[in-house]
Amino acid sequence: MQKTIIAAKSDNHVIGNQQQLPWHMPADLAFFSEQIQNGYLLTGRNSYGTPEGMGVFANRQDVILVTRQKDYAPKGIHVAHSIPEAFELAEKLGVQQLNILGGAEIYAQTMHLTDELIITEIHMTCEGDAFFPAIDPALWKEVKREDHPADAENPYAYSFVWYTRI
Question: What are the per-10-residue average pLDDT scores of the chain (166 residues)?
Fold first, then answer.
């Protein structure tokens, strides 16, 4: 099973602030939607419950939700209570591609277990309370980068960056 982390982060590693994205970048939303078309989605309960999460996960049957809350069971969603349990469930379901969508705690727990990172770097610094882990160049090799300037719809320059595990 291929495991891929997909995330957007600012230059200071912020991925969220008070359960919301600290930016509005339509190009990143389109890129993100394209990346998650194939495969199952793995997310934590907090990310699942955000306004952005509700839009991403609505009407999808291919979601594995990780929560420590034993009685939390949204209709139509597979629930696991740990990362190992989520990976085991994905194997049982025959998942070929597992897209890991966060949040911060899920990224921290899976970073050493994944095969690939697909990161949108938003070239700005911002306040936040959720952070993406550091990408260690001794463990990850950048294999592709697409740089884009800010424009009328996307207020910050940004890069789509792919990494593979060394």
Answer: 98 96 96 95 93 86 93 91 98 98 97 97 98 98 98 98 98
Only one residue has tokens 């610094």, namely 125
Is the pTM higher than 0.85? The answer reads: yes
Q: How far apart are the first and last CA of the chain?
A: 17
Between CA 148 and CA 160 the distance in angstroms is: 8
Q: What share of the chain is helix, strand, coil (3-state, %, to 5)?
A: 25, 35, 40
CA–CA separation, 105 vs 92, rounded Å? 24
Per DSSP, the three-state class of 16 is strand
The H-or-E segment that residue 3 falls in is: strand 2-10
- Domains and their CATH numbers in the chain: 2-159 (3.40.430.10)
DSSP secondary structure letters along 136-164? -TTTEEEEEEEEE---SS--S-EEEEEEE
The label of the residue with tokens 């960056």 reads 161
Cβ atoms 7, 121 nearer than 8 A:
no
Cα(82)–Cα(106) distance, integer angstroms: 10
